[in-house]
Amino acid sequence: MSHTIVTIVGSLRKESFSLKIANALAKLAPASLKLDVTTLEGISFFNQDLEANPPADWLAFREKLQKSNGVLFITPEYNRSIPGVLKNAIDVASRPYGKSSFLGKPVGIVSNSPGALGGVSAAKHLQNILPGIAGPILGQPEIYLNGVGDAFDDKGQLTKEAVQKVLQQYIAAFAAFIENQNK
Ligand SMILES: Cc1cc2nc3c(=O)[nH]c(=O)nc-3n(C[C@H](O)[C@H](O)[C@H](O)COP(=O)(O)O)c2cc1C
Q1: pLDDT band at residue 183, thresholds of 50, 70 and 90?
Q2: How far does the centroid of ligand 1 lie from the alpha carbon of residue 113, in Å?
């Protein structure tokens, strides 16, 4: 049986490395996983007042998460944390109170950066944010991808072998984790 994983891309940028990594992971994933690469374009700003009559984009995002077998975050690092657009989407999905759409969903976190530190602070911030509203987070292997700036060709295909190898290992471990959590 194939498990659907909502793969949330934490950047809106057209040429986003996070998006390219999500697409690469979707290709590397074993047959047991279907990665639904999801960008956050069009998710309205969270405003608790709107909860009485939630925007259609919130409802669609929440429903997609609820129907999934797990969630994979592919996040860049902005100023040593996650981008605001990603925090907004998490806030949207975490409500109404007690009814988080992430509840019970196993989670993976893949941070990345063209810089040397691989977005590790962003990943650590996600590890702080999620435990109260989501299911278990895959702890090992950890993955903080650095040097992604020269990892793709001009068609967006992953060409850097070292990155490919790490992604392959990660998605295999994540597939086993998902299998286990959805038993
Ligand atoms: C507002 C802003 C803040 C950033 N802060 C960091 C940072 O703290 N650490 C880091 O490694 N890169 C930082 N960067 C560089 C991003 O890693 C780089 O722009 C990356 O390409 C963004 O991800 P994307 O390619 O998925 O859009 C920052 C970029 C922006 C635009």
Answers
A1: confident
A2: 7
How big is the chain by its Cα radius of gyration, in Å? 16
Q: Is 156 in the pocket of ligand 1 (CB under 6 A)?
A: no
Which residues, 6+ apart, have CB-to-CB distance to 59 below 8 Å? none
**Ligand 1 centroid to 127 CA: how many Å?**
19
Instruction: List CB contacts of 101: < 8 A, sequence separation 6 or more.
Output: 61, 62, 63, 65, 66, 93, 94
pLDDT (tens digit per residue) in 70-102: 999 999 999 999 999 999 999 999 999 999 999
Alpha carbon of 78 to ligand 1 centroid (Å): 5
Q: Which fold has domain 3-181?
A: Rossmann fold (3.40.50)
Which residue minimizes the CA distance to atom 9 of ligand 1? Answer: 77
